[in-house]
Amino acid sequence: MNLMENIMLSMEALVANKMRAFLTMIGIVVGVTAVVTIVSIGEAGKTSVVSSISKYGDGFFTLLPSSGTDVQYNIAPDMGDLEQVRKVPRVEMATGTLTILADAKTERSRETKSLIISGTTNELSKIEKMTMLAGRFFSSAEERSRQKVIVVESDYANLVFGSPQAAIGAKLTIGSSLYQIIGVTKTERNLFSPPVKTEYQAYMSIYVLPRSNDNGTVTFSALYVKADTKEEEALQKIMTDVKKTVAKRHNTTDKTYSTQTAAEVEQNVSSVFSILQVIIGSIAGISLFVGGVGVMNIMLVSVTERTREIGIRKALGATPGTIMGQFLVEAVFLCLLGGTAGAGFGLLASYIFALVSGWPYSVSIGAIVLAFGFSAGVGLFFGIYPARKAARMQPIDALRYE
């Protein structure tokens, strides 16, 4: 008996017991659905974060006080540090950021919204490759002359003013100061973007950033640096030079500061997501094990029900291998049907999640291959015992079975 005949017999057996076959497959369907959904969502999350980091391009790295360091005011990178870092050989661009949360009121409606304001320099728009939907980013001249201008994200402009174009020229009251909107950037969405936003991104010159402890010193929480190379050894030397430059100005060692490249962040993010996918996917795989036990139970019932059929086939010359192959193919076929349905439901679930959350939709081919491979494996593993039981039956005993 060849493989196609075994498959046809398996289909006939499943059609003859539709409800039993359906209930048996539920465990496999649920397990595969869970695995495919989790892996696909994990891939989407990884893609989202990595894409938001990759916009900085090759040669980008950050500098900030090392974790565990007693971050005092006199070691925070300042404008003098930034000017010296720009002079370090092979540094193309450098900027700094200091982020605060502040309430902003519109001049007309007096409506208040929370803004996450990054105080920075005009190089940030080039380093982050911002997409301007209306207006422009503030210039170095506006930065030096301390003009109170602000750039907001498109979500804020659409919500408060109706469109990015309508926001240009509008005035916002932040603290005790009045700022004019001169630009609207495209809102960047990634893994950490909330489904319902209550805070919106904005940018202004570090010189006019509202601060409660303003003593005249312009400081940053981190420096963003863009080097002219992506070669690992050269980039490491540039990062060391930058750390030494900042440390020297603050009379401390370069261990006070740490640097991290965009590639290192991407690698760390990918590692974390891979570990989470394995852990959560393994937990979801328990349902596949439970489904496999159900398949074995049903196959044992099937063997018992078809005892006389097995006896007749053996009496007509069927070998134990042929009998075993028939029931193994039936178990694998049953699991593959469940795996196919589970893969479809998993892709649908991850697509719905992407629509609701705003994350990118990612089809994980690896997850689908894993699902089918695991389904076939479950069918083989849990189908062996019932198939061996059928193959070992003595024809005379099987024929006398009532």
From TrEMBL:
Coiled coil: none annotated. Its main location: membrane. InterPro entries: ABC3_permease_C (IPR003838), MacB_PCD (IPR025857), Macrolide_Exporter_MacB (IPR050250). Pfam families: FtsX, MacB_PCD. It is found in: Cell membrane. Keywords: Cell membrane, Membrane, Transmembrane, Transmembrane helix. Residues 22-237 form the MacB-like periplasmic core domain. It is a multi-pass membrane protein. Residues 282-395 form the ABC3 transporter permease C-terminal domain. The chain crosses the membrane at residues 21-42, 275-303, 331-353, 359-385. PANTHER family: ABC TRANSPORTER PERMEASE YTRF (PTHR30572:SF4), MEMBRANE COMPONENT OF TRANSPORTER-RELATED (PTHR30572). Belongs to the ABC-4 integral membrane protein family. This is ABC transporter permease. It comes from Paenibacillus chartarius.
